[in-house]
Amino acid sequence: MTPFEKMFPNGKVIIPDEKYRSDFTVRETESAIKYIKDTFQNNFALEMNLKRVSAPIAVLQNTGMNDYLSGWEKPVSFNIASINENNHAEIVHSLAKWKRNALKEYGFISGEGLYTDMNALRPDEPFLDNLHSVYVDQWDWERIIAENERTLDVLIYIVKKIYTVIMKIEQEVCNKYAKLAAPFLPHDIFFIHSEELEEMYPQFSPRERENKICQEKGAVFIIGIGANLENGQPHDARATDYDDWITETGRGKRGLNGDILVWNPVLGQAFELSSMGIRVNKESLLRQLELKNEMHKTKQYFHQRLIQGELPQSIGGGIGQSRLCMFYLRKAHIGEVQASIWPKEMLEICQEHHIKIL
To answer: Is 125 domain-assigned?
Structure first.
C-alpha cells in the first residue's frame, strides 16, 4: 500500500491506496466489533486483576473530577433543573481522576483495580482525521499500588502485561477471521524515553519521531510525556493532576507515564492505542500544579482528598476501544468502527475512496 492524504478545512483523510476496500461488510464489522470488545475486556481484566464498574457520562463542575486534558479544551456543560445548588455538570473528557476516587470508595486494595466503559465528548478536537473524533470510547482502568511501587520498573512491568493482551488478541482475531492478513505486532514492545527519542531525531517533530521509531520497532512505549525536553517543549501535553510526569526516573530523565504506540501499515504511520501512567502523589501534584500555574485547583474536592492523603496510590490509563477495533480489522478510518459526527467534506472523500463511515 502507498497511503496518501486528502486535505480539507480543519481536517484530512489518509487513503491507504486507490484500491482500498474493507474486508468486512457493515454487518460483519458490527459483529466483529462485539467479538473484539468482549474478548479483549475479559482477557484484560483477568491479566490485570480488574473488576468492571459502572461509570458516569457527566460529573459536577468544580469538583476536579473531570479530565481537562491539555487545559484549553472546554467540556460540554449543562445545568440540572432538579438540583437547586451546584447544579452545573460537564460531559467527561475521560475518567482519569474519577477512577482513583472510586478505588477508595469501593474498597479496593493493593494489587486490585477497576475498569469501565468510558464514553466522552471532546468537541474542541482541533483537527479531525482517520484517528481523531469528537466521540471517544475507551476502557478506562485504574489499579492500586503501594507507595514503594511508584517506580519506572513497575510502570514497565504493567505496560508489558497490557501489551501481551493486545498482541494475543490480535492473534485470536486473525485466527477467527481468515480474510485478515497475518498479525502485524511483534512479540515484544520496545521502551524508549521521550528524551532519548528527541536525541535520536532532533530534526523531527514528536509525531515524526513516533513514526520513525514505530516503523522500526513495530510496538513502542514512549516514557516521559508532559515534562519539557531539551528543546523546551514536551513530547506531548499532559494534565497536571493525574499522571506523574515530573518525578525523576534516572539519569536526569523525568516521567512515570507514557503511551503505547504500534506501527499501522494500513495508514503507514504510528498508531496510539493507550495513554497511561503512575499517578501523582501529593508532592508531584503540587509541583506540577505550581509549574503550570494551576494552584487554584488545590481547593477542589479531588485535589483536597489527594493532598490530605485520603486516596490510594495508583496506576491507570485508557485503552481506545475503537482504536483497537480499527487496528485489528485493518480499517482505514475510525468512523468505520464507531458512529460519530464528521464534516461533510470528510464524508465525501471517504465515500469517493470506498471508506464506509457508520
So the answer is: yes
Q: 77 catalytic, yes or no?
A: no
CA dist list (Å): 63 to 8, 90, 334? 38, 11, 32
Residue 357 lies in a domain: no
pLDDT tens figures, 222-247: 999 999 999 999 999 999 999 999 99
Looking at the 3D structure of the chain, how many domains does it have? 1
Chain-centre distance of CA 105, in angstroms?
24
Q: Which of 170, 243, 244, 259 is catalytic?
A: 259
338 catalytically annotated: no
- Among candidates 267, 244, 275, 282, which has minimal Cα distance to 326? 267
Asked if 230 is an active-site residue, the reply is no
pTM for this entry: 0.95
Known active-site residue 137? no
Q: Specify the CATH number for the domain of residue 169.
A: 3.30.930.10
**Catalytic residue of the set 122, 209, 279, 323:** 122
Q: pLDDT tens, 294-323?
A: 999 999 999 999 999 999 999 999 999 999
Closest CA relative to residue 270, chosen from 336, 201, 337:
201
Catalytic residue among 22, 275, 284, 322: 275
| Amino acid identity, position 116 | T
Catalytic residue among 73, 272, 294, 345: 272
